[in-house]
Design a protein that fits this description.
The protein is mostly helical. It has helices at about 25-30, 35-50. The longest helix is centred in the last third of the chain and has 15 residues, at about 35-50. It is globular, with a radius of gyration of 12 Å.
């Protein structure tokens, strides 16, 4: 979510490409998000969702 409360989705894909030129890493970098941080946030949210 950005500072104005708008939700931003990088990629909706159950099996995104993960090479350096794939959409997910490229979009994360463009948004200023480290790929490892993105993965950690996704895992944390999944764990919270299933508690």
């Amino acid at each position: 979510m950005d500072a104005e409360g708008r939700v931003q989705i990088l990629e909706v894909n159950v099996s995104p490409g993960l090479t350096d030129t794939s959409l997910l890493p490229t979009a994360a970098a463009a948004a200023g998000i480290e790929l490892g941080d993105l993965y950690a946030a996704l895992v944390e949210r999944a764990v919270e969702r299933h508690r």
